[in-house]
Every structure is written in structure tokens, then in C-alpha cells.
Amino acid sequence: MIHRFLPYLIAFITGSIGVFAFSPFNYWGIAYISMLGLLYVAKNPHKKTALRASFLWGVSFFSIATSWLHVSIHQFGGSPLWLSYFLVFVLACYLSLFPLLFTYLVQRFKVVSPVIFGTIWTFSEFLRGWLFTGFPWLLFGYTQIDTPFAGIAPIFGVTGLTFFVVWLSAVIFNAISAITQQPQKIKFALFNILLGISVTGVVSFAKTNYATSLENKAITITLAQGNIEQSLKWDPDYLQSTLQIYANLIRPNLAKSDLIILPESALPALEESIQPFFDELNQASQHSKTDIMIGTVHRDESSGKLFNSIALVDGNYSSNTAQRYNKHHLVPFGEYVPLESLLRPLGSVFNLPMSAFQSGDNIQPDLISKDRRFMGAICYEIIESSQLQTNLKDDTDFILTISNDAWFGDSYGPWQHFQMARMRALELAKPVIRATNTGITAFIDAQGKVIRQAPQFAQTTLTEKIAPTIGKTPYAVFGNKPLYALLVLFVLLRVIGSFIQKRIVSRLNHG
After folding, report:
1. Alpha-carbon span 158 to 424, nearest angstrom
2. Residues noted as catalytic
3. d(CA 239, CA 88)
4. DSSP class per residue in 22-61
5. C-alpha dihedral sign at 64, 65, 66, 67
6. Of 53, 77, 235, 283, whose CB is crowded by the most CB atoms within 10 A?
7. Distances, alpha carbon 391 to alpha carbons 158, 181, 209, 395, 428, in Å
8. Measured between alpha carbons, how far is 389 from 379 in angstroms, rounded to an integer?
């Protein structure tokens, strides 16, 4: 009886603990243990057991690792607590289809090669990050940012790091399987162990510094963290208080900082409806020679479209002509509602504040302040590595990301988000400047290390003199193309090898 349920028990336990590999826990070794559990059930000799257990692994992993989503659904979407958790469970069931696909392909092609395990997992994760606008959250590669293996990221990105986690887990799995189940294959097990040690040793020496810091171009930047409670943020009666809070955070830093940055939708009203406040900021910017970047809600005058936007107030501000970045990758249900004519009437969960945005262009120019160039990314967009890679210009100085993670309270969701922002810095060798409403507000260097960080849930400012960098990583130049080309090559070599092996066996049988 115990033997019968063992695969399900292992799937549940190893899936459930996967979250502890990510921030804020940062027990990165658990990523390998969790993946070993999935490999164990995926290779179960009984196909139905393998598929069911893999689905259970996925539900366990995603239910716990994305449980923070219930905060926005329950507290700010107005849904009952039970419904918020049920919707998280439904999402977890959908996301579990991708580990299920992984296991199906492993079973279908009787996979034993660690490289092919990694290739199939990379394919399934690609689909998870692409279908229905994608949800590329919780890639195991993120857990490795503070490990000796982080040097893979500037070459192959977080996708390559994720491949490495699966590959190394498969090497370990094959070695354990050979020792425990097929003692006659001890040489095979030793080969796998030596291969794993050799490759990980080489990888641990991969460099992470591809950029040169331009200290002579350093500028002083202040990040304003308003710490506005989400329950108050969109309350019209609290608008004046919000404006006053940010005015108080901005004022002491005028003429002291070159640039002051406010978080996503810092001023919770249409930009055009609070022009007197923007006029005051523009005059202050003109007199102090301090530029101000603000997360705003902007309605384009010509098209009437509503955008989640970053606007630059530089002494020459005008709503119609200001430099701005308009968010491209919108969050379904949070910033727009698919099939809204059908879904909006169903309840408040489909009517969150400001859920009628339009997408900005995929490729947009950098924001320019004090002759420094800032590539914009608002909230969720910082997890879209391909979007940032394609938007990076030769003369981009910084990655600027603004966010409002107050939606998720004091859960670990904002920490997972912050970890992904750090990975973008490492991938592209550009400092990341991150301004948020409630945290985590920080300056991150070009190797993904935190320079300075403000405390969460504090009304404060964070100031740093930070230098841009020059130089590009292989990932910044080529993106995921080299990795995908390698994976296709691995598959072709495996197919050719299998074909040759079958021909040899066939000749021997007929010889």
C-alpha cells in the first residue's frame, strides 16, 4: 500500500517545498531536490501514475508558490476568502499542465539523457511563458542568482540557468538510479557524477562582470517610497493626502539629487485631471534643476487610450509632449480584462481599479534625463527578459523599473518579484533602479547585487550616486537564440544517435 502511494507522497512533498528555493527564503539547493522529485515521478514505470503524480507535483508547487495572489483577489478584489484561494488553486491547476506535458514527453520518448530532460523542460517553460500572454514566474533559474552558477545568466539568461538546474538534477537522478536500481551500471553512475562535477566546476568560474562602470557619468538619484495602503490608494477622498505625501518626499531632495523617481501610478488619478500639481512640480524642477519621473495614469489626447505610464517632468513638461514610457505587457484581469463584455458583469473580481489599460508599443525609446538613458519597465514587465533584451539599446545607461506591490501585502510575492529584477541586471549588465510604493525599493548593480535597499512598508526616500555601465553580455546581444539553437542541436543529435543505434541492432539481428 505504501509503495503504491509513494510517488504521490514524493510529488506532494517535493512540489510543496519548491517555494523555499526562491526569495525571501533563498535555500537555492531545494530547487534541485524539488526537481529530483519531479524526475522520480516522471520516470515511474506506470505511465498513469507518472502523469497523475506530476500533476500533483505541479499543483503543490504552484498553489504554495503563488498563494500570495489571493491577497489582491480577496482584500482588493472584494472576493470571499474561500473564492480567492479557489482561484489560486485553479491557476495552479492550469500551470500544472506544463509539468504534466514534461512528463508525457519523457514517457513518450523514454528519455534518459540529462540534456534531453533539460530540453523538454525548457520547451514546457517556454510554453508557460508564452501561451495566453504567458506567466514566466517561478523559473528555477532565478533561485541560482546568488550561487556559483550565476555566471550562466549573462550568457544564456535565466532560461539557460533553469536548463542547468534541470540538467544537473537529471545527472544526479541518473547516478542515484544506477546505484540503487542497476548496480551493474556503476560505471555509468560514476560517469554521470564526474560529468556533473566537471561541468559545475567549469560553470562556477564563469564570469559575471561584462560591463565597465563609467564613474565620471554617475548621477545622484532619489527613489520616493510613499507607502500608500492599497485600500486607500484609489480612494478619491485620499487623493490630496497622497499628493501631499509625495510632495513632502520630493521637496527635501530638490537641488540635491539629479533625478527623483516615484513608483507606479504614484498619483492615483488621471494625469490630465491633476495638472495644477504637475505644473507645480514642473516649476520646482525648472528652478532646482532636478528632474522628476512619475508613474502616472495617462490618457492620450489623440487616441483616447488609457496607459499605465512613466512621465518625465524636467522643467519643460506638457502632458501631450512629455517624454514618457507606456507599459506594453499588461497583466490580464489586473490591467485589462479579456472578454470583458462577458466577464465584467460577473463580479468585482473582474473590476479591479484601473483594469482598462491599453498596451504601449513593444519597442519604445529610452527616457532621457540629465543626458542619461533609462529603459523603462513597469511592474510585471521586469520579469519579461526577452522584452527587455529587445528594447536594450547600445547607449542605454540604466534599467528603470517602477512597481506597486502593495497589491500583495506582506506576502513573499514582492520578494519573488524583486529577485527577478535582480536577474535582469545580471543578464544585461545594466544597473537596475527600482522604485516601489511599499517596497522593495532598491538600487541594483550590473551584476545583480543589491547596492542599497529601503525597508518595506516605510514612508521614505532612498538616495544613491550610481554610475551607468558600458558593455554588453552575450545574452544582451543574442537573447535566447543561442540556447534554443543548442537545444535543437541536442535533439537532432539524439534523434540521429537513436537512428544509428537502431540500424546497428537491426543488422546484428539479421546478421
Report:
1. 9
2. 264, 327, 379
3. 32
4. STTT--TTHHHHHHHHHHHHHT-SSHHHHHHHHHHHHHHH
5. positive
6. 53
7. 17, 50, 21, 11, 11
8. 16
Element (H, E) at 469: strand 469-470
Beta strands, E only, 81-151: none
Best CA proximity match to 387, nearest among 327, 300, 449: 327
Residues linked to residue 20 through DSSP beta bridges, in sequence order: none
**Cα separation values, 118 from 140, 299, 352, 353, Å:** 12, 45, 39, 41
The CA distance from 245 to 83, in Å, is 35
Left (φ > 0), alpha (ψ -120 to 50) or beta: where does 132 sit?
A: left
pTM reported for the whole predicted model: 0.93
For the chain, 511 residues long, give each residue's pLDDT as a single digit of tens: 667 899 999 999 999 999 999 999 999 999 999 999 999 999 999 999 999 999 999 999 999 999 998 888 877 667 788 888 999 999 999 999 999 999 999 999 999 999 999 999 999 999 999 998 889 999 999 999 999 999 999 999 999 999 999 999 999 999 888 888 776 667 777 777 787 778 777 777 777 788 999 999 999 999 999 999 988 888 899 999 999 999 999 999 999 999 999 999 999 899 989 999 999 999 999 999 999 999 999 998 888 889 999 999 999 998 888 899 999 988 876 676 665 555 544 555 555 555 678 889 999 999 999 999 999 999 999 999 999 999 999 999 999 999 998 888 889 999 999 999 999 999 999 999 999 999 899 999 999 999 999 999 999 999 999 999 999 999 999 999 999 999 999 999 988 988 887 777 767 776 5
Rounded to the nearest 5 degrees, what angle is found at the Cα of 329, between the Cα atoms of 328 and 332? 130
Cell of 244: 501631499
Integer CA distances (angstroms), 375 to 74, 237, 457, in order? 34, 34, 26
Cβ 372 vs Cβ 219: under 8 Å: yes
Helices (H), 205-257: 230-233, 239-250
Question: Which of 64, 49, 50 minimizes the C-alpha distance to 95?
Answer: 64
CA 416 to chain centre: 8
Cell numbers linked to 357: 489599460
Structure-block grid coordinates of residue 231: 485600500
* Cβ–Cβ < 8 Å for 436, 403: yes
